[in-house]
Amino acid sequence: MKFLTTFRHVPKRFAAIGILGVLALGALIPATAFAATPTTKPCASTDLQCFITAGDQFIAQRQTSLTNLGNRVAERLSQKLITSDQANALQADVSTNESGLASLKSKLDAETNAAAARQDDMNIFLQFRIYAVVLPRDYRRLYLDVAVNVDARLRGLSGQIKQAIQNAPPSEQGQLNTLYNDYIAQLTTAESQFDLAQSDFPALTPSNFNYNRSAYQSSLSSLTTAEKTIHTALHQAGSDAHQIATILKGK
Amino acid sequence: MNRFIRSRQQCLMLLAAAALVLSLVLSACGSPANAANSGAPASNPANTQQGRSPIYRARTSGSQNTSSGVQNTDQQIQGLLRQLDGSQNDVNNADAGASQDGGQP
Fold it and tell me: What is the distance between the alpha carbons of residues A49 and A120, in angstroms, rounded to a whole number?
C-alpha cells in the first residue's frame, strides 16, 4: 500500500520512460529464446517405425536446407554476383545431395528390420554431413564466387576513379593518389587469396570429416582465414573509394 | 508553489522541444536550397558562376561531372560490398547450424 502511495507521486513521464524501457528490454530478448527446441526421443532398439519416422524428419530438415541453398544460389545468379558456371557447380552439388537423401529415404521407408532402419538413420549423418560439411562448404564456395566477381567489378571501376582523380585540383592529387594506390593494393591482396582459398575445397568432404578430422579442420581453417583476408581487403578498397568520392564531392 | 514550479519546468521543456523542432525544420529547408551544388560551401551559391570566365566555368563543370560520376561509382561499390556482407552472413549461419550433425548420431 505504501508502495502504491509512493508510486502515485512519481511523475507520469517517469512512468512512461519506465514502460518504454521494459518494452525495449523485451525487444532485446531474441525471439529464439521462446522457440521450441526440437527434442528427439531415443528409439527402442526394436522399434522399426520409430527409426523410420525419425529418419524421415532428419531427411526433411536437410532437404529444406538444401532447397534454401539452391534458392540462394539462384538469387545470387539473378543479381549477377556469380556466373552461370559458378551457379551450376553449386546447384549440381545441391542436386547430388538431394537425390542421395531421397534415395536413402526410399530405402529407409522400405525397411522391415529395426537394425537396418537404424543404420539408415546413422547414414543420414555419416554419409551426407549436410549441416557439418555440405552447407558450411557450399556457402563458403558461394561467398568466394561472389567475392571474385565483386573484386572484378571493383577492378573494372578503377579506371573511372583514376580519371576522376586526374580531373581533381593538383592540391588534392597527392592524397587522392595515396587512396587510389591503396585501393589497387587491397584488390591485389584479395586476388592473392583466391587460389589459396580454391585449393582448400577438395579436402572439405564428409569422408575427411568422419575419418581425417585434422585434415578437414586444417583446410577449413585455412579457407576461413583466406576468406577473412579477402573480406577485409575488399572492404578496405571500398573505404578508399568512398574517401576518394567524399574528397571529390567537396570540390 | 510546487505546482507553479512544475508548470514552469513543463513550459521550459516545451520551449526546448519547440526550438529543437524549429532547428530541424530550418536545417531541412536549408539543404535543398543549395542542392544544385551540394559540394559548394553555403557562401558560394551555384549561380555565382555567372560572373566567372568561360574557361573557369568549363573547368568547374567538368569537375562536377567527374564528381557525380565518382559518386555513382562509390554507390555501386558500396552496394556490391553490402551484397558481399550478405554472403558472409550466410556462411556464419551455416557455421552456426553445423553442430546439428557434427557428432555421431
Answer: 13
Contact B73 A161 (CB under 8 A): yes
The one-character DSSP state at B63 is H
Q: How many CB atoms lie within 10 A of CB A65?
A: 19
The nearest alpha carbon in chain A to B77 belongs to: A238
- What's the CA gap between A182 and A189, in Å, rounded? 10
Name the minimum distance, in Å, from the CA of A96 to any CA of chain B.
Answer: 19
The residues in A 25-64 lying below 8 A from B, measured between CB atoms, are 61
Q: Which of A 164-203 lie inside 8 A of B, CB atoms?
A: 164, 167-168
- Residues from chain B contacting residue A72 (CB–CB below 8 Å): 90
Q: What is the ipTM of this complex?
A: 0.81
pLDDT in tens, chain A (251 residues): 444 454 455 455 554 544 444 444 334 333 333 333 344 678 999 999 999 999 999 999 999 999 999 999 999 999 999 999 999 999 999 999 999 999 999 999 999 999 999 999 999 999 999 999 999 999 999 999 999 999 999 999 999 999 999 999 999 999 999 999 999 999 999 999 999 999 999 999 999 999 999 999 999 999 999 999 999 999 999 999 999 999 998 75
Enter the C-alpha cell of residue A227: 576468406
Cα-based angle B6, B9, B15 (whole degrees, multiple of 5): 145
Residue A173's nearest CA partner among B72, B69, B66, B49 is B66
Enter the pTM of the model.
0.71
CA distance B58 to chain A (A): 12
Q: Which of B38, B91, B95, B104 to mutate to test the interface with A (most CBs of A within 10 A)?
A: B91
C-alpha cell at A232: 577485409
